[in-house]
């Protein structure tokens, strides 16, 4: 309370140097209070005190985890771009804004980003202070995400799972070793982090929501008002972290209503079920009203935007193929053990309802999500808690099945070996035959150090483009969309020291149904074309890049407007060809392009209003 009063005082007198520190501390203290209150009310903290003597093991593993993350990112020689750089850039921007600007300006920009931007500043809030301390390098950003979001999730999950399996008579050292190893060495959680994603922030709210649900035994009407408020705040906060967590939230309520409907018909005490039904309805309605009143634009876009069509370029494969991809992502061995845990969870009366809930919700998430998009590295966070929960349950059941101490020890050693190998092969390429023979059964959530061999060539290309436009208002457009060459790669070459290595470059349109035709291309003086034509998605979803690049390379159609200047040879046998415009576009050329793209996308007239800016 004292900190909040001090924060408000500082905000009004606009003492900029303290804004970021007080703002971060207040959020951290509030989160800490909510978490400890929930865990104390459900006796999770008191139950866990029995195992605190073993936390030096967890501490060692966390330190080793930080060493691994830091060494991994330090070994990379890469140009981060698109999703691997976007939130890094935004975190730097918000950190500087928060520590250099008055409070009102900070709140306005944060609020505006939540309402109108697909990628809001909300998930970067807790990273601003750590980045100010650690620096703004990609390594610092990754370490900050790991320690602010992922490690707290590890702690909360391990404390929760300890309560769940408290009935199992297993040595506490065995518990902590298994938990730490199985959870912390879980590639589907670490790999998105190493790629550059900070979407793991959602896991913090997911675990809190699950804890409330499990510990209340689905009888939410018995909860304290403070806990219900925390549940409402957790669901609302989860919605604001990343839009696609909306799939988790929607499936949460759908599954819960289904569970209550089933319980209504099979339970004798129907009044309790009705009371719980009403309680969760109040929670859902309250979260909805908060979003409607304070974040109306965000809510409308989330509900009514046609993401099925917008992200069609990212969607491929049928349900069976996506299910196979999911199994391979987590690993066949992991999924097999998790299925054992699912069976045990349903068989055990204490965990039956919760296990069924996780199963049904996971199915709903999977089916609904693949209708809109394919699962990316970060999207599997929607299912990580569920898989981890059943994985741990499976491990504990397998170990406790054998009463002979010698058998248990051997089995524990084997499981730990599988966990370590599973983790190792996800990040280190090896020629060891025994590991390679098991690799099809292990997690495919791999992430190897990214090392570009053409950094000098990219630097030379950037220098040449800057020379062509230096001291002028000439603009550059890049007709290329791949991991080798794109406008974002050139722009981000000098991050974090320089935000834009090519100041005169335009932002390119990459996805036809999302971005439409780039009218700025028509007035660009310099055009960089990838040869062969560079696609990151299906060519049929990137026709703007494909058609324009092909005509320039072939000197046909619009190609007559350009003159070849010079080539730069990049990795993956990609030639970056630089052209300059020798005559401006006339109405005939514009009509030619308009007709071509109107015929291709007649259902998107607003995206293909081709004209000179």
From TrEMBL:
The chain crosses the membrane at residues 6-34, 55-73, 143-161, 173-190, 196-216, 223-241, 247-266, 273-295, 326-344, 356-374, 380-402, 409-428. It comes from the Bacteria. Keywords: Membrane, Transmembrane, Transmembrane helix. The keyword Membrane applies. The keyword Transmembrane helix applies. This is Glycosyltransferase RgtA/B/C/D-like domain-containing protein. It comes from Desulfofarcimen acetoxidans (strain ATCC 49208 / DSM 771 / KCTC 5769 / VKM B-1644 / 5575) (Desulfotomaculum acetoxidans).
